[in-house]
Design a protein that fits this description.
The chain has 513 residues and is α+β, with helices and mostly antiparallel strands. Helices cover 27% and strands 23% of the residues. A 6-stranded antiparallel beta sheet has the order 2-1-5-4-3-6. The chain has a 5-stranded antiparallel beta sheet with strand order 13-14-19-16-17, with helices on one face. A 4-stranded mixed beta sheet has the order 7-8-9-10.
Length: 513
């Protein structure tokens, strides 16, 4: 089956993608935590024997662009049928500590055929701060248990879960990841039994090569260009953190150099280079060829660099909890802005995941809960921006009110569109959303948010989206903060709107309210 014709190639693309999708379904339906079973904060993918990603389910962009590095961290070790690997180290293929990856080798008649992997964001990962998403961490050990890539032995999952809060829930989610990988192994083995291991290996190579040809073809059709962009993050101390990128298209190779970005911080907005690369790859695919096969072959023509010790290529040991969620979102904004010199691009979306962690360690009411909140997407030439959706590096859902109130001592007082928050324009920006919750027990919270001072920008005369707001009992909170809620206290999050595209109609002001 090597040297696939176009029809055979499409059939194989569908077969491999369906394996990843089924893995994702098993993970979501088997998990116990709301973050996975309700919000679907998880990803699954399939790799060839060298560790190159062949296919993925369309889950979380920041997971999938970095998962190849997690497989690369274990691919050189001896692989044994039935022995899986686990890890979360951001500097060994991870993103931030709550994202734990389970990897399982798959064998065919001729030996190692490939790998399947499942990554999920766990509601707790141990450490001093429940939830693993502290607003003010200064080092990686402040953020939880670091799991170096290691094989899973008979007691590994039990021992890891015992070091975390709500160990039974953690163990159940680990087992859900293992179950997802088992179905991936079964389905790939079935495909190899039907077509032959050599044919499947050759087909995976063909898929990778096709994705590369398609990406290079899209790049080759563009005019050569050089461009640059600058954007900012909002540090916890109120200062602005500058990010820079220089983009260059040279024939069919696209290079991004993040030199000039801020040095590594004493906070948690840092990210490993794998996260910077993930955000870059997402932005390129979104603008260049959104319907391209979700395969690492399409990554081959793209080069990403950032100085070691910078915020976008932090050194091992740096705090990275916010880097994976907020810095990655800003990198996506930055790359889209640079690409707009050559490719039509929308206005900026909300540019934040609005991370909220809620915890209670009171006996009988103990829980850890994490969610991200949607906002407005930017307007574009072909239509207005969608409202109240997860933008860019997040692709999760909002937790339903019924699930939230049933499982946790919380009452949702308001869940609504944030009317008037989208930027005006010929194509208006999407509206943000409002989520207001009331505590029914003593609860601690951590907020990691962005776009509270700097609004999502409009494009071609469109208005800016409204900045977001965080409030406790009506009093405004900083973008990044921690605090406590007593019973009856209310926490309200108003997420940013998207920027507008094009000059607004006469009579409407440009910026969101």
């Amino acid at each position: 089956m090597g040297g696939l014709d176009p029809i055979g190639l499409q059939v194989m693309l569908g077969a491999l993608a369906s394996i990843c999708e089924e893995m994702g379904a098993v993970l979501i339906r088997s998990a116990h935590s709301a973050n996975i079973k309700e919000r679907r904060d998880c990803s699954t993918a399939l790799f060839d024997a060298t560790g190159e990603m062949v296919s993925q389910a369309e889950h979380i962009p920041v997971h999938l662009g970095s998962m190849p590095e997690a497989v690369a961290a274990i691919v050189a070790h001896e692989q044994i049928p039935g022995r899986s690997w686990i890890g979360n180290d951001p500097f060994a293929g991870g993103t931030h500590l709550p994202d734990v990856t389970v990897i399982t080798p798959v064998f065919g008649a001729n030996g190692l055929l490939g790998f399947v992997a499942a990554r999920a964001h766990h509601a707790d990962i141990g450490g001093p701060t429940a939830g693993g998403m502290p607003a003010n961490s200064r080092s990686l050990t402040d953020e939880g248990v670091v799991i170096a890539p290691q094989p899973i032995g008979p007691k590994t999952l039990d021992e890891l879960a015992a070091a975390m809060r709500n160990p039974l829930e953690r163990l159940a989610d680990f087992r859900a990841q293992a179950a997802a990988n088992r179905i991936g192994v079964i389905r790939l083995e079935e495909l190899a039994d039907r077509l032959g291991s050599e044919a499947v290996a050759a087909a995976m190579s063909s898929v990778l090569d096709y994705a590369e040809r398609r990406c290079r073809g899209r790049l080759d059709a563009l005019k050569q260009f050089r461009s640059s962009a600058v954007d900012y993050l909002e540090a916890a101390d109120g200062s602005d953190v500058e990010l820079r990128v220089a983009a260059e298209l040279n024939h069919d190779t696209l290079r991004f150099d993040f030199s000039g970005s801020a040095p590594q911080l004493d906070g948690n907005l840092n990210c490993p280079l794998t996260v910077t690369r993930s955000a870059t790859l997402f932005a390129v695919r979104a603008l260049l060829d959104p319907d391209a096969p979700p395969s690492a072959g399409g990554h081959r023509p793209i080069e990403v660099s950032a100085p070691s010790g910078s915020i976008l290529n932090a050194r091992p040991g740096a705090a990275v909890a916010a880097g994976n969620v907020e810095t990655s979102s800003r990198v996506a904004d930055l790359v889209i802005e640079a690409l707009a010199a050559a490719i039509p691009a929308p206005a900026q979306g909300q540019g934040t995941m609005n991370n909220l962690t809620l915890t209670c360690e009171q006996p009988g009411s103990a829980f850890t809960y994490y969610e991200t909140l949607g906002g407005g997407q930017g307007g574009a030439a072909d239509g207005p921006g969608p409202s109240a959706i997860h933008v860019a590096m997040s692709n999760t859902l909002n937790t339903p009110i019924e699930a939230l109130e049933l499982e946790f001592p919380l009452r949702v007082r308001e869940l609504a569109l944030r009317r008037g928050s989208g930027g005006a324009g010929a194509m208006v920006g999407g509206e943000g959303m409002v989520r207001e919750i009331e505590a029914l027990a003593p609860i601690e919270f951590n907020l990691i948010t962005e776009r509270r001072r700097r609004a999502p920008r409009g494009r071609f005369g469109g208005g800016n989206g409204a900045t977001g707001r965080n409030l406790k009992n009506g009093i405004e909170l900083p973008a990044k903060c921690a605090g406590k809620l007593e019973p009856g206290d209310r926490l309200r999050i108003e997420t940013p709107g998207g920027g507008g595209y094009g000059e607004p109609p006469v009579g409407r002001k440009a910026d969101g309210d």
